[in-house]
What does this fold into?
Amino acid sequence: MKKPNILITNDDGVNASGIKYLCKALEDIATVTVVAPITERSASGMGLTVRHPLHLQEHHWSEKARIYSVTGTPADCIKMALSVVLDSTPDLVVSGINRGSNAGRNAIYSGTVAGTIEGALRGIPGIAFSCVSSSKPYYDTASRFVPRIVEHVLSTPLNPGTVLNVNVPSRKYEDIVGMRVTRQGLGYWIEDPEKRVHPAGEPYYWLGGKLIDHHEDEGRDTDLLEQGYLTATPLHVSELTDHLEVEKRQKSFSKLMT
It folds into this structure.
């Protein structure tokens, strides 16, 4: 049976530990190509590089996969992979394993998730993997779930325009309570700027951030992660239209012309 072709990216950089765990978890069940940022591009979202040239460089830390870095964002990496590196469209885009949670509304800012969204906009299904803790990510735990989730998605395809956002509690494999497909939580990081002063006297800021606590409905991803479940949230990204608003405003908006 022919192996699937999988394109891997991340936002922690091509030499990050998480992407090496991800590559190793997939290279025996798939033909793997890695195209990832040369440096960390966390929280870059769907940002693109349009005012600077992009440089492509080959790396050799795996004997079973082709590996490239791009001097850009995760979205840049997918564009470069599809336009320059690959000869054919991959069966799946897999991103991660991220160092830190992308549960709740943090997914909006995530470069990890953005890599899969860029693929979904081209009709390629995607899965983003993240470890909840940034200070002590259990990559070994997360990587043990990667092959079975990937094979599940390949055998039971996602709806067109949908990506799967997977978050794994930072704990030992045997301490994971279970696996759940669930809704996105409401939590997200809000700015917490720290003002500093340059030796020359000019003020500057580290934007920083802190997690905003929200009352979460039972069973959302953020709630289940605290209980020790691995969560998988399907995110539909091909169209952002609020159809209820279209219906509500169609007549009244048209009358603004009169």
Remarks:
- The chain has one domain: 5-185+216-257.
